[in-house]
C-alpha cells in the first residue's frame, strides 16, 4: 500500500472512535477497507488501493499503534503481513515492513510487530 494514503485514511476514519477503540481493516483483492464505529451516530468507512497476496483477511488494530509503526517506515510503500494461529478467532501478530515499490519488498532493516485486537462479531 502507499504509505501516505494509508496514514491519511487511518487518521480520517479514526476520528469517530472513542479513546481506546480499534479500527477494523478488511483486506480483499479489491483493496483495503477501514471501518470505525464510534457510537450509534458516529461511523466512518474508507477504502484505499492495496495489493493482496493470499486470502481475504480482517483484523482489528488500534490506530495509534499502527500509525506509530508506519511513521517509522521511510518508503513510499508499506507491506503488512499476517501470521496464522491455531485458533481462527485469535489473530496472530501483524508485521509491518517497508516496500520499495508496489511489487518489490524493501530492505528488511525495519520491522514493526503489532498484535491485533480480538474481532467482535
From TrEMBL:
<keyword id="KW-0808">Transferase</keyword>
<dbReference type="GO" id="GO:0006271">
    <property type="term" value="P:DNA strand elongation involved in DNA replication"/>
</dbReference>
<dbReference type="GO" id="GO:0003887">
    <property type="term" value="F:DNA-directed DNA polymerase activity"/>
</dbReference>
<dbReference type="GO" id="GO:0009360">
    <property type="term" value="C:DNA polymerase III complex"/>
</dbReference>
<keyword id="KW-0548">Nucleotidyltransferase</keyword>
<keyword id="KW-0235">DNA replication</keyword>
<keyword id="KW-0238">DNA-binding</keyword>
<dbReference type="Pfam" id="PF02768">
    <property type="entry name" value="DNA_pol3_beta_3"/>
</dbReference>
<feature type="domain" description="DNA polymerase III beta sliding clamp C-terminal">
    <location>
        <begin position="2"/>
        <end position="88"/>
    </location>
</feature>
<protein>
    <recommendedName>
        <fullName>DNA polymerase III beta sliding clamp C-terminal domain-containing protein</fullName>
    </recommendedName>
</protein>
<comment type="similarity">
    <text>Belongs to the beta sliding clamp family.</text>
</comment>
<keyword id="KW-0963">Cytoplasm</keyword>
<dbReference type="InterPro" id="IPR046938">
    <property type="entry name" value="DNA_clamp_sf"/>
</dbReference>
<dbReference type="GO" id="GO:0008408">
    <property type="term" value="F:3'-5' exonuclease activity"/>
</dbReference>
<dbReference type="GO" id="GO:0003677">
    <property type="term" value="F:DNA binding"/>
</dbReference>
<dbReference type="InterPro" id="IPR022635">
    <property type="entry name" value="DNA_polIII_beta_C"/>
</dbReference>
<dbReference type="GO" id="GO:0005737">
    <property type="term" value="C:cytoplasm"/>
</dbReference>
<dbReference type="InterPro" id="IPR001001">
    <property type="entry name" value="DNA_polIII_beta"/>
</dbReference>
<keyword id="KW-0239">DNA-directed DNA polymerase</keyword>
<feature type="region of interest" description="Disordered">
    <location>
        <begin position="84"/>
        <end position="104"/>
    </location>
</feature>
Amino acid at each position: 500500500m502507499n504509505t501516505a494514503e494509508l496514514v491519511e485514511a487511518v487518521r480520517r476514519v479514526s476520528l469517530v472512535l472513542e479513546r481506546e477503540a480499534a479500527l477494523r481493516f478488511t483486506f480483499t483483492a479489491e483493496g483495503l477497507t477501514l471501518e470505525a464505529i464510534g457510537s450509534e451516530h458516529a461511523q466512518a468507512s474508507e477504502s484505499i488501493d492495496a495489493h493482496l497476496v493470499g486470502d481475504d483477511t480482517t483484523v482489528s488494530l488500534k490506530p495509534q499503534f499502527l500509525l506509530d509503526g508506519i511513521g517509522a517506515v521511510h518508503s513510499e510503500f508499506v507491506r503488512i503481513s499476517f501470521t496464522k494461529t491455531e485458533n481462527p478467532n485469535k489473530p496472530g501478530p501483524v508485521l509491518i515492513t517497508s516496500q520499495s515499490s508496489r511489487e518489490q519488498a524493501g530492505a528488511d532493516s525495519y520491522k514493526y510487530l503489532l498484535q491485533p485486537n480480538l474481532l467482535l462479531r
